[in-house]
Amino acid sequence: MSSKRLKTVAVHAGSRLADSKSQPLVPAIHMSTVGWFDSSEDLDGALDGKDYVYSRISAQNTALLEEAVAALEGAEACVSYASGMAALRAVFEAQNLQRGDRVVMPGDGYGVTRALYKALCARMGVELHALSLSEAQAPGRIMELRPKFVLAESITNPLLSVPDIRALAQACEKVGAALAVDATFPSPYGQRALSLGAHYAVQSATKWLNGHSDALVGTVSASRERLAPLRSMRLLAGDVLGPFEAWLTLRGLRTLPVRMKAHCEHAAHVARRLAESPLLERVYYPGLPSHPDHAVAQAVLEGGFGPMVAFEIKGADRAESFRVLEALRLARPGPSLGDVCTLVMHAASASARRLTPEERAAAGIRESLIRVSVGLEDPDDIVEDLLGAVERRGAP
Ligand SMILES: *Cc1c(COP(=O)(O)O)cnc(C)c1O
Asked: Cβ contacts of residue 180 below 8 Å, gap of 6+?
């Protein structure tokens, strides 16, 4: 399957349960937590992972989803979790960090991940360094710091900067650091982080892989060897994905490449038109030649420049930004991304909420910053809705 092209992989991967002759075109949803066996020998083998016996150990729907995500990521295997955050925590904990070890993560990334890693590092006596990984000196900083673990985000949230994953991977290789990439924003359609040298590709599959905002799902894809400790810890800790969530996400990812192609094309169109508007201070989109990471983005992203756009409203404070969200008539003001419908968010109060005001200022996240997950509506309708809302914000 891995030699097939991405669209084909998306439609067919994870569609066949091993050791059964009957193959439903759509997989059944296996809600049973327990499998029982006529033969005690088979039951005994199942407890060693040879069959499905208890759904904290392994389950049919999660196995199919994991097979499909691994194929999309170009990975040997995948381990799924009950949320993207659970996946990010699992990767962190698999590093066996000791007091005094160093961890590097993006200073301008997802605020919840920052807060989680801060809490974990503080508890363990691990040094956490939040860097701007898209700056040219980032690989050099990694070599100076000699961290054991580095987390990068393919496209940062919410400012959409794009680090050079290949250069970060080379720096990690030199100092023996493990590199995980949270590739939620481009999804495997836009970046296969493992092919750029990362050791783990993490997804909040809640977003583009699922694509329809109806399940919380996290995945970590990597080599079988790197995933072995994650798999055994998940069996003990129990942060597993439920069968229905796995089923919905498998159904959603069947259309990932065709959805993402359209989302990325729409985002490019929306960014171009917003960039022409005198109502906006600035537009952030890696596909614009004015974006500082445009050249890197061309090298590390595929199939476009991602489905996300952000902009600053000229002279707006928090209250005015809130009024813009309330003035939308088509797009939904919702603090997520990855839906077929356009979702608009005030970054400082939502995805960056868990950052301190100082951390937000250092990351460059202003009160006038709005992030858009560009949907499948007609892109001109999206632009008109966004600009109309900016224009109407003063009106009662
Ligand atoms: C949403 C998100 C997460 C967290 O995923 P959940 O599924 O909500 O737990 C992590 N990283 C990024 C980039 C995200 O957008």
From this structure: 91, 149, 150, 151, 152, 198, 199, 200, 201, 202, 220
Probe target for ligand 1 pocket from 69, 83, 112, with the most ligand atoms within 8 Å of CB: 112
How far apart are the C-alpha atoms of 135 and 152, rounded to whole Å? 12
Topology of domain 256-392, CATH: Aspartate Aminotransferase, domain 1 (3.90.1150)
Task: With a cut of 50, list the residues of the chain below it in pLDDT.
Answer: 396
For the question of residue 182 being annotated catalytic, the response is: yes
The closest of 37, 36, 32 to 60, measured between CA atoms, is 32
Q: What pLDDT sits at residue 24? A: 83
Amino acid 394: pLDDT:
62
pLDDT given for residue 227 in this prediction: 98
Identify whether 261 is a catalytic site residue. Answer: no
Q: Collapsing DSSP states into helix, strand and coil, what is residue 85?
A: helix
- Which amino acid residue places its CA nearest to atom 1 of ligand 1? 204
CB-based contacts of 343, cutoff 8 Å, min separation 6: 331, 332, 333, 334, 335, 336, 337, 372, 373, 375
Contact 172, 180 (CB under 8 A): no
Write down the catalytic residue from 4, 16, 50, 56: 56
pLDDT digits (tens, 9 = 90+) for 362-374: 888 999 999 999 9
Q: What's the CA gap between 183 and 202, in Å, rounded?
A: 6
Question: CA–CA separation, 118 vs 193, rounded Å?
Answer: 24
Centre of ligand 1 to C-alpha 187, Å, is 12
Distance (angstroms) between ligand 1 centre and the Cα of 148 equals: 23
DSSP SS3 for 69: helix
Pocket lining for ligand 1, CB < 6 angstroms: 83-85, 110, 113, 153, 157, 182, 184-185, 204, 206-207, 216, 218
Domain coordinates in residue numbering, the chain: 41-253, 256-392
Domain 41-253 sits in CATH 2.40.30.30: no
Name the residue with the closest Cα to ligand 1, atom 15.
184
Catalytic annotation, pick one of 108, 164, 182, 239: 182
- CA torsion through residues 137, 138, 139, 140, sign: positive
